[in-house]
Amino acid sequence: MFILPNVPTTYHDGITFYQIAEATPYYVSPCGAVYSSLKDRCLTLADNGIGYLQVFLKLNNGSKKWRKIHRLVAGRFIPNPENKPDVNHRDGNKESNGVNNLEWVTKSENTRHAYATGLMKAKRGPEHHLYGKSASAETKAKMSAQKMGENHPKFKGWYVTPAGTFASAPAAAQVMGTHAKQIIRWCKSGKKRAEGYDFIPATSEGQALAIAA
Predict the structure, then answer these.
(1) Residue ranges per domain, the chain?
(2) How far apart are CA 52 and CA 162, in angstroms?
(3) Could you report the per-residue pLDDT of 158-190, keeping only the tens digit for each?
(4) What is the model's pTM?
(5) Closest among 50, 49, 46, 43 to 29, alpha carbons compared
(6) How confident is the model at residue 119 (pLDDT cuts 50, 70, 90)?
(7) Residues ≥6 apart with Cβ < 8 Å to 176
(8) CATH number for the segment(s) 9-105
(9) What is the distance between the alpha carbons of residues 202 and 209, in angstroms, rounded to a whole number?
(10) Number of other residues whose CB lies within 10 A of the CB of residue 10
C-alpha cells in the first residue's frame, strides 16, 4: 500500500514527480526516477558498488550527498507507522525501485528476506572463516562433555540480535556484552524488533528461519 503525498509536484515526460523534502529542487516518482528542476531532466542513477541505485543531490542545507533510490521512494510514498529502519525489495532485485516492490522492515526481517531470496548465503566449506582449522584436544573434550545450544535437552529456540543468531541467551549475552536475562527480555518482548532483536521458537519452521537468519 502506498500514498501520494500532499507535496509540490512537477510533470516531466508524462510522469508526475513529487518533491523531495530534504532537497526541494529534486522530485522523485513512484517508479524510482529522479527529476531535477535545476537541469530540467531526469538524473542518471549510479550503482553504489553493491547493487543499489543511488543519485547525487544537493540538499537544502548546502551539502551534497548520495541518496539510495529505494529509500527516497519508500520515504516519500510508503507509510511507516512502526518506524521500521530498513527498506526491503520484495522480489530481491535491488534495481527494481518501484513503490509496489518496496516495504519497510526490521533488521531481522530484512536479514531473513535476504537469505530467502538468495541475496545472502551462509558460508560453508572453504568460504567459512573456520574452514581447515581444528580445535585443541582440550576444547574438543569440553565440547563433547556437555550438551550446548540446539543439542541441549531443554533447548527452546534461537535468539536473534544485531550481532547474529545464537542458540542460547548466555552465548548472545557474551558477544553483546550484557546479561542473559537482558537478551531474553529484548528478544522475547517484541519491543526491540525494530533494532534487530527477535526470538525464533524451536520448531521445524523456526529451525528454517534460524538457518536463514
Answers:
(1) 9-105, 152-213
(2) 22
(3) 889 988 888 888 888 888 889 989 999 998 888
(4) 0.57
(5) 43
(6) low
(7) 161, 163, 183
(8) 3.90.75.20
(9) 10
(10) 15
